[in-house]
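Go through this one:
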Amino acid sequence: MLKRPDMTSEARDIAQVAVPSCVLGDPVGFGGREEGGFRVGTLHLRGDAVVGMTASFDPVQRLVLPKLTEPQVHLDKCHTIERLGAIGGDLATAVAAQSADKAAWTANDLDARMRRGLRELAQAGCGTVRTHIDWSNSEDPPLAWEIACGLRGDARDLGLDLQVAALTGIDLLADANFASAVAKRVSRDQGVLGAFVLRHSHREAGLKNAFVVAEKFGLALDFHVDEGLDPALDGIEIIPRVAQQIRFEGPILCGHACSLASKTSTQVAQFAEDLASNGISVVTLPTTNLYLQGRNAGTPKSRGLTRVHELSRSGVNVVLGTDNVRDAFCPIGRHDPINSLGVAVLAAHLDPPLVQHMPMITTGAQRALGVQAQTVDGATEDDLIVFERPDLSSLVADPARPIRISELAQGETANG
């Protein structure tokens, strides 16, 4: 919905712009000319508010988007690869290597690496970011949690809304007292309750407690679930069932869900229906999953990704995340959703037109985090970014630094 303009404010125009129709609340009402899934023309602002677009046949020079959303990173682990030595292997190997590295996680180390990650996310054009923080078997928060929560103000100065999610083992949450204590602290710190769900013996009890305490304290839920290709993994089946039993109405995000790649088509269809009917979003994490999953003595035979297309076709909100950057779980990577989109284009066969996938790193990703989706119509200039590229393929293939609207808009008088 377009904001009502202040007619006394300065009028400004940006020519030769394309805005993806999928990030507009009312594409036709917004104006401009439809071309290949975009509205094309001259973007109009009054004051700092976007007020619409006039059609133009001039060649497009730039893309205007809502700020990007990063639904999953690990700022506590990032940029540790150079001190980990010769590592490589599956998920268990990565967990062991990163756990050993925690001996070096001093306050100064964590602060420096987290700040670096936040700067990279801001430079990539992000507006909302969720980082997971490992939470041990103590009810008290780890040092990394305190550092991350303490950086929220610095993140705001960079234009970022930083969400912090506690990542516990689901077996720990099977203890009702532990679950309640952690949830209480997470609530105090305005965080998100999360858990790692794999082959844990008490995963169903842990999940039930997670939903109960999240409902009690008004918390969003975020699960690392079934991060493996064993078809017997069943977290993605249990979560919607428990959500329905508890009648949980808060946001739920499930990351990885790699095991769906090994399920039958009939099973996937049923799980997808259960996820969609309970409003559960799924984040696919191609860089980490490509690196860790399907390990054998030679070349991997499986890509290790969840069933992106099948879930989407069933109405599940499937979004895209960066996950690990230069750590034991992925030795490369960038804190950049556009880069993640490029990897997913290849790994998940996200075919052109690429514009149809933009909600995965913008409006859909915001909904997955429980944030109101920001469309271009109804935005202020602080909500938007501009890329000096004529199309999305050019942007993904040759990344550009996002710039602010204020760096482009040409001022005119209101009556000019």
